[in-house]
Design brief:
heterodimer, A: 487 residues, alpha/beta, 20 helices, 8% strand, extended, B: 502 residues, Rossmann fold, Arc Repressor Mutant, subunit A, five-stranded parallel sheet, three-stranded antiparallel sheet, 22 helices, disordered N terminus, ORC5_C (chain A), DNA replication origin binding (chain A), Origin recognition complex subunit 5 C-terminal domain-containing protein (chain A), ORC5 (chain A), AAA_16 (chain B)
C-alpha cells in the first residue's frame, strides 16, 4: 500500500486531510502519475470523506468537470440501463446541475446535504462529511479561464467553507498557471520529493508482486522474485540516469523480463529451480547490451514493446531509398537551397564556359568568424530550413544534374551549348509534377497557399541532414562541399 | 534585545534572519529529542489536528491591541457601519447601497457574513459573484434561482405568463411544471421587471455582490443600473420592502468604472477595510492558534496534561524568540494577507515530527522558503542526465547571445561536448572517461518533458510548417539555480561543462 518514497508525503496529506485547507496545490514535476495514484489511495482510505478525482485532460469542458465532480461526490455511477443519467436529488426540480457555475455550486450544496442526511439515517450522524475535489493535470485548466478562478475559490463561493477542499495536482509550478491580477488565493503548496534510485527499485519490485497477485502467468511467479530483483537492479543501474520515472523503467523491464526468465530457466540445471549465481551473472552480462537498446527504442516509443521483442523496427525517419533518381536529386537540391544563403549560389555552382567538370573549391565562412561583442550566427542547419522559391530549386537542380550526370550530348543535334540539354531536362513538366508529388509526400513543404497565383510557389526542405547525406552518397554528389556552412 | 511586547519598533531588523536561531531553542530541541516520551507521538498528532482545525476558521486578528494611536480598529468601524446600514434597510425600509473596499485577505467577506448573521429579521439574501456570473444573463438566472429557493415562489413567471397570455398558448409549455421549474430563463428584456419585483416581496432583500468590479465591466452595466435604480426608488415607510446592495471589491478605482447614470444612482458610500497595521496582531494570532487546547480525552489524562504544559512553554519560547519575530516581521512587511500567515502556520505545524516536536525559528524559515520565497525551480538537481545536459547547453546558448533556441541547437552543443570530452585517448577499466552519450530520441524525450512542465516556453506560434526540432523555445531556468543544482549532483563532467566558457 505504501508507495516507496512517498512515506513523508502520505503523512503530510493524511494530517492535512483531517481538516484540509480550502485550496491545496501539489506539484510533482517528474512522476505526477504515481503521485496521483498515491493521492487516490489516500483519499479512498480516508474516513468520513467523499472525494472526486478528475483529470483535467479528460474533463476538457466545464460541463464534463461539473458532471464528473458531482457524480463522484454523490457516489453515483451513471449506468447504461438508466440512460446514463447524472446524479440529481430525488425531490429536486428538473434543473440540471451542469449548465453553469451557479447551478454547479447548488449541486455541490445538494450533495453536501445529501451526504449529511445519509449519515443521519445511520446510527452515527456524520456531521462533517468532508468533500475533496482532486484535479489532476491542473495545468490544462488554463484552457478554461472562466473556470480556473471559481475552482480555486470554490469553498468560499459555494459557501461550503470548511467542508470542501480543492486539490490541484500538476507538474507545472503554480506561478506558471496562476490567473492574472491575483484573482485566486495563493494555495498551500506541497512539493513532492523526487524519487531516488532506491525508491525506483523498490517501486519496481512492488510492481512485480502486484502483477503476480493480479494476473499470474508463467513469467510472473513469486518464486522468481530474487532473480527479478537482480534483473531490476541491473536495468535501473543502467537506465536510471536517463529517466527517473519508474513507469518508463517498468515498461522497458516488462519488454525484456519474459525473455530473461526464459533464458534463465533454460540455463537452470534442474526444472523449477533458479540458476546459480555465476550463471545469473553471465546472463545479466549478456543482457546488458539489450537493456540499453531496449531503453533507446522504447523510451521514445519509436516502437512498442511487442514489436521490439520480435526485433521489428519501424524507423520512420529512415531514408526511403526506393525513390527514383530524379526524386532524390530534387530533395538534395531542396536541402541545399534551404541551407545555403541565396547569395552564395553563384559561388557554389557558377562555372565558366571552359570550366565544365572542374570544382571550384570555395569554403564558406559560417559562424566561426565573429567580431568582439557580436553575436555569432547560428548555422542554418540548427535553426531549421529556410524557404526558397521554386525557380531557385530548379536552378540548383540543373547545376546538380549537369555536374553529376553523364549525358550523351552528341546524340541530340543542335544542342551545342554545354548544359542546354540539362536545362531542357529539368524544366520538363515531369520535374514539376515530381515536385508537387514530393510536396504531397511531405518531403518538401510548401509555405505559400496553394491557391496563390502571383509569384513562384515557395517551398521548404523537410528532410534531415542525415537523410540528405544518405541520398548524396547514393547519387555520388559531394554534398558537404556544396554546403556553405560546415561544422 | 527589547521585549516583544513593545508595540512600535524600528523596521530595521537587528540581525539577519537567515542566521541560525538562538541557542536557547536548539538546546531545547536536543533536550526534548534525547528524552522522547512514548506519549509524544500521539499527543503531537492530536495537537497538529487541533491546530489545523483551528486554522480552518481563524479567529479575528485582534488587531489592534497594541494600536494605541487609533482608538478603534478599522475593521471594527467598518463592521459597525455596515451593521447599521443593513439594520436600517431591514427595520426601517431604507434603500441602501455601499461598497466594501479593501485589499485581499483583509476580512471583507468575513465582515459581511458577520453583519448578515446579526440582522434582526431574516431577509432574503442574494449572493452574486463576478467570477461565477460572468454576464448579466447568468446573474439574472442566479437571482431568479435564489429568489425561488428562499421564497418558494417563482417571480419571473409573472412576466412569462403575461407574454403567454398575450400570445397564443404554447403547447410545449406545461404551466404547472413551469410553476416549479426555474429553468425558464427570463429574456433580457425582462431584467428590469425581475429586479423591480424585489421591493414587492414580503421581506427585505440584501444583495451581496462579490467582485463588484467585474460587474462594472459587463456591457452597459445593465444589472448594476437596475439594482441601484431600484435601491434609489425605495421609499421608507411606503409599505414596500427595502433593498440593500453591498458590493465587495479589492479594486480601488471601482467607482470610476461605473457609468454616469449608474454612478449617480449609487450612494457613493465606500467602507474601507484594512490589514492590521502592527505585527502584534500577527504574533497574537500565532500564539492563539498554536496554543489551541487539545480536545478532552479521558484515556490518558495525565500524559495530555504533561504534553500540554511542555507544549505551552515551548510555544511561549517560540513566540518570544527574536529570530521568529524577525522572520515574521519580514513576511509582514511584504504581505499582510492573513491567508499567507495561515499557510505559513499550516506548513509549520506539518513540519513537526516526533524527533523535533516543538516549532522553532529554523522550522519557520524553512516553511517561509517553501511557501512564500519559493525557489524558481527547486528540484533541478533531481533531474536525469539528458535533462541536465539540455539545460547546460541552453545556458551556454544564452551566454553566446542566443536566448531562444531550437532542439537542434542544444543537441548540437551536446554532441560537440561529448565529442571533445571523449577525444582524449584515456581509458579507465576499458571504458572511456568522457561524457556519456545519449541517443537523440532520448534527448528529444527529455526536451518534450521540459515543454510539458513549462521550463521551456515556446516563443513562436506553433504552425504545421515548422517541424518540432526547429521550434524556438526560451528557457525559464536561471543560470545560478542550475549552477547550484549541478554542483549538488556532483557530476564531474557536467560541472566541468557548466563552467567551461564557450
Amino acid at each position: 500500500m505504501d508507495t516507496p518514497g512517498y512515506h513523508e508525503f502520505a503523512n503530510t496529506i493524511n494530517t492535512l486531510l483531517t481538516s484540509p485547507p480550502p485550496f491545496l496545490y501539489i506539484r510533482d514535476s517528474i512522476t505526477p502519475r504515481i503521485t496521483s495514484h498515491v493521492l487516490n489511495s489516500i483519499l479512498a482510505s480516508a474516513e468520513n470523506l467523499r472525494y472526486a478525482h478528475i483529470d483535467a485532460i479528460a474533463c476538457f469542458t466545464p460541463r464534463l468537470i461539473f458532471d464528473s465532480v458531482l457524480n463522484a461526490l454523490a457516489r453515483w455511477f451513471p449506468r447504461w440501463s438508466d440512460g446514463c443519467t447524472n446524479w440529481s436529488e430525488e425531490d429536486a426540480s428538473d434543473e440540471a446541475y451542469n449548465t453553469s457555475l451557479g447551478s454547479f455550486m447548488r449541486g455541490l450544496r445538494d450533495v453536501r446535504s445529501d451526504a449529511t442526511s445519509a449519515g443521519k439515517g445511520k446510527a452515527k450522524a456524520i456531521e462533517d462529511a468532508q468533500m475533496v475535489i482532486l484535479i489532476e493535470n491542473a495545468d490544462r485548466l488554463t484552457a478554461m479561464p472562466n473556470l480556473m478562478v471559481p475552482l480555486t475559490r470554490l469553498a468560499e463561493l459555494s459557501q461550503l467553507d470548511t467542508s470542501l477542499s480543492v486539490i490541484f495536482l500538476s507538474r507545472v509550478r503554480w506561478e506558471d498557471i496562476r490567473p492574472p491580477l491575483g484573482a485566486s488565493p495563493d494555495p498551500f503548496v506541497v512539493d513532492v520529493q523526487p524519487l531516488t534510485k532506491d525508491d525506483a527499485t523498490q517501486f519496481l519490485e512492488a510492481n512485480y508482486l502486484r502483477i503476480c497477485a493480479e494476473n499470474p502467468c508463467d513469467a510472473y511467479d513469486p518464486s522468481f522474485l530474487p532473480l527479478y530483483k537482480q534483473f531490476v537492479s541491473a536495468v535501473v543501474s543502467i537506465n536510471f540516469p536517463f529517466t527517473h520515472d519508474p513507469n518508463e523503467l517498468a515498461y522497458v523491464i516488462a519488454a525484456q523480463w519474459p525473455h530473461f526468465i526464459g533464458a534463465a530457466l533454460r540455463e537452470a540445471s534442474d526444472e523449477d529451480a533458479l540458476p546459480d549465481e555465476p550463471t545469473r551473472m553471465r546472463l545479466l552480462r549478456s543482457f546488458t547490451a539489450s537493456m540499453t537498446t531496449a531503453f533507446e527504442s522504447l523510451y521514445p516509443r519509436d516502437t512498442h514493446a511487442a514489436d521490439w521483442v520480435e526485433g521489428l523496427s519501424t524507423d520512420t525517419n529512415a531514408p526511403s531509398s526506393s525513390l527514383p533518381r530524379m526524386h532524390k536529386y530534387i530533395l538534395l537540391a531542396s536541402y541545399i537551397a534551404s541551407s545555403n544563403p541565396p547569395k552564395t549560389d553563384l559561388r557554389m555552382f557558377g562555372r565558366g564556359l571552359d570550366e565544365r567538370g572542374k570544382k571550384k573549391k570555395r569554403k564558406g565562412g559560417g559562424g566561426a568568424r565573429q567580431g568582439a561583442g557580436k553575436v555569432a550566427k547560428v548555422p542554418q542547419r540548427l535553426i531549421g530550413p529556410s524557404s526558397f522559391p521554386l525557380d531557385r530549386l530548379v536552378a540548383i537542380l540543373g547545376a546538380l544534374v549537369e555536374e553529376n550526370e553523364e549525358y550523351r550530348v552528341e546524340v541530340h543535334e543542335g544542342m551545342s551549348i554545354p548544359g542546354e540539354w540539362t536545362d531542357m531536362e529539368v524544366s520538363r513538366v515531369g520535374v514539376l509534377g515530381t515536385i508537387s508529388e514530393l510536396t504531397r509526400m511531405r518531403l518538401l513543404q510548401r509555405t505559400t497557399a496553394v491557391d496563390k497565383l502571383d509569384g513562384p510557389p515557395v517551398l521548404k526542405c523537410a528532410i534531415s541532414y542525415e537523410t540528405a547525406l544518405e541520398y548524396a552518397r547514393e547519387l555520388g554528389v559531394p554534398l558537404v562541399d556544396l554546403l556553405w556552412e560546415t561544422d | 534585545m527589547p521585549s516583544v511586547q513593545q508595540p512600535e519598533r524600528s523596521q530595521t531588523p537587528e540581525k539577519s534572519p537567515r542566521l541560525p536561531s538562538p541557542k536557547r531553542v536548539n538546546i531545547r530541541a536536543t533536550n526534548s529529542a534525547s528524552s522522547i516520551a512514548h506519549y509524544v507521538g500521539p499527543c503531537l498528532n492530536m495537537q497538529k489536528r487541533a491546530i489545523l482545525r483551528a486554522l480552518q476558521s481563524l479567529p479575528d486578528t485582534r488587531a489592534d491591541e497594541g494600536d494605541e494611536d487609533e482608538e478603534q480598529p478599522r475593521n471594527g468601524i467598518v463592521m459597525q457601519q455596515l451593521d447599521d446600514l443593513l439594520k436600517a434597510t431591514v427595520t426601517r425600509g431604507e434603500g441602501n447601497s455601499c461598497l466594501l473596499l479593501g485589499p485581499r485577505g483583509s476580512g471583507k467577506s468575513r465582515i459581511v457574513e458577520r453583519c448578515l448573521a446579526n440582522v434582526p429579521q431574516k431577509p432574503i439574501i442574494i449572493r452574486l459573484s463576478g467570477w461565477t456570473e460572468c454576464n448579466d444573463r447568468l446573474a439574472m438566472r442566479e437571482i431568479a434561482h435564489q429568489l425561488f429557493q428562499q421564497t418558494g415562489t417563482a417571480y419571473s413567471i409573472d412576466e412569462n405568463d403575461d407574454t403567454d397570455a398575450a400570445g397564443e398558448d404554447n403547447p410545449f409549455l406545461d404551466t404547472i411544471e413551469t410553476e416549479q421549474n426555474q429553468l425558464l430563463l427570463p429574456p433580457p428584456s425582462h431584467l428590469p421587471a425581475l429586479i423591480s419585483t424585489l421591493p414587492t416581496l414580503s421581506r427585505p432583500t440584501i444583495v451581496i455582490i462579490d467582485s463588484f468590479d467585474l460587474f462594472a465591466l459587463h456591457p452597459r452595466q445593465a444589472l448594476l443600473y437596475c439594482l441601484l435604480d431600484t435601491v434609489q426608488s425605495c421609499r421608507a415607510g411606503s409599505g414596500r420592502s427595502a433593498l440593500a446592495v453591498v458590493g465587495i471589491t479589492s479594486r480601488l478605482d471601482t467607482t470610476n468604472l461605473l457609468e454616469k447614470r449608474v454612478k449617480s444612482r449609487f450612494s457613493g458610500r465606500t467602507l474601507r477595510t484594512a490589514h492590521p497595521r502592527v505585527l502584534n496582531a500577527w504574533t497574537g494570532l500565532v500564539q492563539e492558534v498554536l496554543s489551541t487546547p487539545l480536545p478532552g480525552n479521558e484515556d490518558n489524562e495525565e500524559h495530555v496534561e504533561t504534553w500540554q504544559s511542555s507544549w505551552k512553554t515551548n510555544i511561549d519560547a517560540f513566540i518570544s524568540d527574536d529570530a521568529v519575530e524577525t522572520l515574521l516581521r519580514e513576511v509582514f512587511a511584504v504581505s499582510k494577507d492573513i491567508r499567507l500567515l495561515r499557510n505559513l502556520l499550516m506548513g509549520l505545524v506539518l513540519q513537526l515530527t516526533e524527533d523535533s516536536p516543538y516549532p522553532s525559528a529554523s522550522h519557520l524559515s524553512a516553511v517561509i522558503s517553501a511557501q512564500r520565497l519559493r525557489l524558481q525551480h527547486g528540484e533541478l538537481h533531481a533531474l536525469p542526465y539528458p535533462s541536465l545536459c539540455l539545460l547546460i547547453a541552453c545556458m551556454h546558448s544564452r551566454t553566446a547571445g542566443h536566448d531562444t533556441f531550437t532542439f537542434e541547437m542544444l543537441h548540437g552543443r551536446f554532441t560537440r561536448q561529448v565529442r571533445t570530452s571523449t577525444a582524449a585517448p584515456v581509458q579507465v577499466n576499458g571504458g572511456s572517461v568522457g561524457m556519456v552519450r545519449c541517443p537523440r530520441p532520448v534527448m528529444m524525450g527529455a526536451f518534450e518533458e521540459f515543454i510539458a512542465s513549462r521550463i521551456f516556453v515556446c516563443v513562436m506560434p506553433a504552425t504545421a510548417i515548422v517541424s518540432k526540432e526547429f521550434i524556438k523555445y526560451r528557457c525559464t531556468v536561471e543560470f545560478d539555480d542550475l549552477r547550484k543544482a549541478v554542483a549538488r549532483t556532483g557530476h564531474a563532467h557536467l560541472k566541468r561543462w557548466m563552467n567551461k566558457p564557450q
